[in-house]
Amino acid sequence: MLRLRLLFPVFFLLCVAFPGPLRAQTEAPAVANKRLFDRTVDELNFRTMETVYDKSFTRSKFPVALRSHSARRQFDGFGANTDLKKLFQNYNDASERFKNRFGKGRTDLVEFEKQLRSILLDKNFEFFIHNLPRDERVALIRAEERVIKQAAAQFNASEDPAPEDLAADGAAVPPADAGAEPPVTAPIEDPTPQPEARAESATAPVIRSPEAAAPSHHDWLDYLTLLLAAGSTCMLAHMLLNVLPDLRARLDGLAEELEEQRPDPSRPKRRPAGALPEDRYEDEDAN
């Protein structure tokens, strides 16, 4: 009895000093993995909002303590920029729904990483960071990928099914986000974009449906080009059929006139009108 009384304070001190390991030993792996997933989602959301806020307000920093949805909801350090405040509140509510993507259906390591990486491909995430310069967006995504890898390293895979069992009855397993809330259909309101962000969004490629990708009707420039081509063809035909033959005929006539005006020694000279005929006495004597 005395030994039990002595061991009880020691056990109490161990519980106070090392709550994490004792909780991990008593907590089920599925519950611990779900808690790890939610904590990682909060970390990803915090890093995303911190990057956008620090870029928008160069003289102030996003508080480090805002690592939960409720803490970020109460934050009001946006000054007179009500549009940016609304943008942050909308994304904070939308990003909280990411936690519903894991915990139902498959709960293995593959699904854990898949659902965390899907956050980086979500349309709300892409819209929230689209005002950042390209190099800062790339740096943010790479930093969040490292956070996902660290969380995957802490995942407890002791209850994960074998790969062959998972492949055998994979069709019978419901998707992890079957009961998740539908994504936000209305786009998050955008604050006043920065100049470089406006130029990037103007040059961003637009994905269109097959109907929209069909060739559109010809515009006035196409018809003007066709008209000029037809006019050039008619002008060339007129020159070949009319102008060049007429020019050639004139050149031939001019050549004949020059030939006639050239003196010919074999041809007798024409006498002027009223002149007497030349004497032919020498020719008659010769005869």
From TrEMBL:
Residues 168-183 have a biased composition (Low complexity). Residues 155-205, 255-287 are annotated as: Disordered. Keywords: Signal. The keyword Signal applies. The keyword Signal applies. Residues 1-24 form the signal peptide. This is Uncharacterized protein. It comes from Hymenobacter persicinus.
